[in-house]
Amino acid sequence: MIRGETVSVRFRTLGSEDAYGNETVDYSAPIQVDDVLIGRGSTVTTTRDGQPFAIQCDKSFCFPRGWTQDLRGALVDWDGKTYEVVGSPTRITDENIPPLSRWNIKAEAVRRDG
Asked: pLDDT tens-digit profile of 28-86?
């Protein structure tokens, strides 16, 4: 039987304005989500002037059925690392999920070091 893992999710919120009038980005307190499937992504090393500059790692997080909160811009903490959700993941309607599947949202996320 496939089993998911527990991750922490922090949701993006718009904060106050900075000194230049731009809204700052804040994040909510983390909530734990159980039974999230984590898929392997890719790793890319970028270079600047021929030298390694940063590493970007992608992951897929499949959230369980019944998940309804918007994951756009959220931070997912897993395995001691933080990944930022890319794009606007949408849930799959229950009618389109195989009967034995427990997951309905696939969120692509990225972590950048450097």
From this structure: 999 999 999 888 776 677 777 777 666 667 888 888 887 888 898 899 999 888 888 88
Task: Label residue 51 exposed, middle or buried (CB < 10 Å: 0-12, 13-18, 19+).
Answer: exposed
Its pTM surpasses 0.85: no
What's the rounded Cα separation, in Å, for the pair 82 and 109? 9
User: Is the distance from CB of 12 to CB of 72 less than 8 angstroms?
Assistant: yes
CA 25 remoteness from chain centre: 16
Phi and psi, residue 27, nearest 5°: -130, 145
Return the residue matching tokens 């999230």: 36
